[in-house]
């Protein structure tokens, strides 16, 4: 009654075995090796592949593939991390922009309310017709409506941001208006992002490219298994055995034996088919990898173009706001000197506020484009963050 176990190792495909057997009773002369001493025989040894299974075998291939699958799962997490950071950043800047727009409409309403008492006093003195007071009341109602809409947008953007803003235990935090920053950071200067360097970083850190590399490694393992199966099997078997207990004195002595096991493959269609399929898949993956690199290059180029263009828009919108503010102040002075009317003043103030809103939107677009650029080069996966 034999009992055996075998332990494969990564040491050149070598496997170790050990076993115990006990053979009692009468055996024919030609089968005498099955007989053991009373306490049985212990046998141990090693099988050393010399050609087939020396570099790789199914067990080692499965272990390598499992390790690659683990790395592929990690890459999926990295991809998700990039998208989460981009989306959270986009929602944060949207919240900041909504807060800035709210302040613009709040200031616009405050101006009309402050002017209301001044106009009333001038109407009493006969310096202004009553229609000017009515027109200012209309402007107040209009601006109150605009402020309510802006407040709703601020609340909505805060709710959207709360999905990514959480306490350590995972509870969502609704950001308060008092937490809003003073304004947007300065935009990136034109041509501060280098295309070649950015593409190099993207190729190095984007998980999509590593994904193709790992998939290629898995297929290469299948190809190696195909080549391995086509090789002849030549195994060196070294074993030692020892009988224990009463019995033959000859069997009581330890025995050492060595042998070669030879197995030549006759049918090689299956290994050749496995090799051919693996090589075809490798060629396909190489093409897909090159396309992915080209796609990433265009994404980086487009992201840099978007950053630079949005930066120019910010500069132009700032200049427009400055001019609109000057014209607004001049028109307001003309009104109080009696050289203008409230309709023109309201138009100037509304034009100025619209210019401010355009500046805010330009800043929002710029910082959103920076977030897109950082996602394109996988900045969150790098040790050094891209400055903003």
Brief sketch in words of this structure:
The chain is of the alpha+beta class. It has 7 helices and 5 strands. The C terminus is likely disordered.
Can you put this structure into words, describing what you see?
The protein is an alpha+beta fold. It has helices spanning 58-124, 130-162, 195-205, 207-229, 249-252, 269-336, 342-376; strands at residues 3-8, 15-21, 41-49, 233-243, 255-263. A five-stranded antiparallel β-sheet has the order 1-2-3-4-5, with no helix packed on it. Helix 1 runs antiparallel to helix 4 and helix 6 runs antiparallel to helix 7 (342-376).
> What is the overall shape?
rod-shaped
Q: Largest sheet, order of strands side by side?
A: 1-2-3-4-5
Radius of gyration, whole Å: 40 Å
Q: Secondary-structure element sequence? A: EEEHHHHEHEHH
Beta-strand content: 5-15%
Which structural class do you get from the secondary structure elements? alpha+beta
The helix content is: 55-70%
Structure annotation, total helices: 7
Distance between the termini: 76 Å
Q: How would you sum up the major sheet?
A: 5 strands, antiparallel
User: Regions with pLDDT < 50 over 5+ consecutive residues?
Assistant: 384-388
Please report the total strand number as a whole number: 5
Mean pLDDT: 88
Secondary structure topology:
Elements: E1 3-8, E2 15-21, E3 41-49, H1 58-124, H2 130-162, H3 195-205, H4 207-229, E4 233-243, H5 249-252, E5 255-263, H6 269-336, H7 342-376
Helix pairs in contact: 1-2, 1-4, 1-7, 3-6, 4-6, 6-7
Features:
388 residues, alpha+beta, five-stranded antiparallel sheet, 7 helices, 62% helix, 11% strand, rod-shaped, disordered C terminus
């Amino acid at each position: 009654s034999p009992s055996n176990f075998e332990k494969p190792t990564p040491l050149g495909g070598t496997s170790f075995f050990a076993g115990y057997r006990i053979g009692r009773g009468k055996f024919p002369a030609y089968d005498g090796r099955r007989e053991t001493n009373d306490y049985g025989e212990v046998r141990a040894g090693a099988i050393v592949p010399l050609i087939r299974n020396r570099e790789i075998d199914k067990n080692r291939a499965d272990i390598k593939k499992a390790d690659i699958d683990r790395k592929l799962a990690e890459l999926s997490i990295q991809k998700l991390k990039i998208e989460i950071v981009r989306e959270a950043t986009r929602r944060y800047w949207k919240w900041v922009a909504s807060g800035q727009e709210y302040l613009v409409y709040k200031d616009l309403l405050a101006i009309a309310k402050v002017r209301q008492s001044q106009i009333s006093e001038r109407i009493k003195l006969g310096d202004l017709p009553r229609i000017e007071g009515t027109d200012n009341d209309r402007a107040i109602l209009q601006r109150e409506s605009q402020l309510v809409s802006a407040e709703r947008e601020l609340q909505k953007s805060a709710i959207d941001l709360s999905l990514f803003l959480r306490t350590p235990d995972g509870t969502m935090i609704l950001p308060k208006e008092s937490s809003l920053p003073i304004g947007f950071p300065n935009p990136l200067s034109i041509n501060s992002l280098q295309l070649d360097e950015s593409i190099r970083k993207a190729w190095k850190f984007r998980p999509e490219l590593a994904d193709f590399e790992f998939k290629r490694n898995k297929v290469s393992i299948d190809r190696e298994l195909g080549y391995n199966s086509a090789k002849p099997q030549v195994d060196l078997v070294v074993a030692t055995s020892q009988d224990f207990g009463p019995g033959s004195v000859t069997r009581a002595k330890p025995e050492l034996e060595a042998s070669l096991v030879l197995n030549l493959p006759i049918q090689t269609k299956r290994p050749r088919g496995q090799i051919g399929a693996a090589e075809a898949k490798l060629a396909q993956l190489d093409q897909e990898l090159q396309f992915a690199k080209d796609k990433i290059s265009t994404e980086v180029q487009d992201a840099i173009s978007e950053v630079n263009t949005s930066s120019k828009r910010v500069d132009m919108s700032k200049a427009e706001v400055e001019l609109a503010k000057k014209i607004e102040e001049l028109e307001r002075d003309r009104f109080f000197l009696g050289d203008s009317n409230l309709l023109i003043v309201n138009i100037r103030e509304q034009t100025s506020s619209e210019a401010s809103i355009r500046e805010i939107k330009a800043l929002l677009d710029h910082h959103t484009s920076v977030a897109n650029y950082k996602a394109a080069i996988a900045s969150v996966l790098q040790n050094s963050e891209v400055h903003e």
